[in-house]
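Dear support,

We are seeing what looks like truncated structure output for some complexes. This example has two components. We would appreciate it if you could run it in full and send us the complete token output so we can diff it against ours.
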Amino acid sequence: MHTFLDCFAFMAGHFGLLLDRTIDHLLLSAAAVALALVLALPLGVWLGHRGRGSFLTVSVSNIGRALPSLALIAIFLGLLGIGFVNVMTALVVMAVPPALTHAYLSVEQIDRDVVRAARGMGLTERQILTRIELPLALPVLFTGIRIAAVYVISSATLAAVAGGGGLGDIILNQVSYGLSGVIAAALWVAALALAADALFGMLGTRIARGRYGGGR
Amino acid sequence: MTPMATGPVIPDFGTVSPCVRDNGLFCADWFAANWSSVFWPALAQHVRLTVIAVGIGFALAFALALLAHFRRWLVRPLGGLASFLYTIPPLALFTLLVPVTGLSVLTAEIALVAYTLMVLFKSTLAGLAEVPEAVRRAGLGMGLTRREILVRIELPLALPAIVSGLRVATVTTISVVEIAAFIIDQGLGSPIIQGLQSPFNTQFIGAGLLAVALALAADGLIVLAGRLLTPWATMRRSA
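Here is the complete output from our reference environment:
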């Protein structure tokens, strides 16, 4: 049990190091999620708006889920070599499927009658998208962002394998940091993932409430 | 006095193909030559670790889901606990368990089972909850007991949801078993991790591709098994 106590001493003694790696970790994750969202959200929303492409999004999400994260990093290691680009590509590939599927579903699940009513009132396609569909889609859309973000933060731990830095660097380097350091970093990254999940969860509830209850 | 060496002093490692010498992306000859010593054992271990984890995880999650189905107040705490476990990054969970249970298969399996629970618990519960109330009442009206309603009505109707949960859980487990190679020298992750030390592309690309293929194959197999288990759903689909 004293291994766990030692790790708190490590946290206190190496707070700067942990903070440094955490910032690395979050920057890497944020960059990957941002890139994935830029790629996936417009495509998903557009496909949902057109009401087609369910086969594409379902297959992408099924295949995406089946891609083991370490295997992806390993394959890109061969293709792209060690470093930031490799890790980014692997993380983006992991983040796109949940974001794309949720973006598609968020628009597709909207009651078609609402859209028809809007069309009947003379709204243009663009107005339907921005004024009707997107606001109604927001809660589900956000769930997709949350899943992608938490998954990427979790997988970014493996980035250290390919020289991507982050908290995984400490976990995988017992020689330098000792067992207490490894345990400390593991606890730290677990707390980080849980905190990110909780934060996104809270934001999600707020968005949903803003929509459906007298939030404003 | 030993006789002078007549052959080359440098030990003869045999000749390698140009692909291996130049560290090409994927050398099929090397992959084939090392299939039985490296890749096949790793693949077999990978499958074994996955099957054990999904088996135990399913038994546990199924029992908990049934419990929560009858005691609704358990849904939130059990679901919350399972989500909590699911959110912890795999590498962190493996590492945190090492001081407790050591660098052992047990450690790996505990973490692997923990990851299957959330998906299996939620999908089983959702499947049971989706059963229309009218169907349940009809069963009651026909004189079925609560247990008979569960076994003969609710569970068969929940089967598609359970199968889709099994799909996700299996594929996720295959992915996490790769990471388990950081604590035990088993599964397709271990050639990857060993390959990282001497960056030889074929070793980790080969193992990575095998893991992807395994996940896709397992996914397909479970879909197929699900169709065989629920012939009525297939009939409805084609009708």
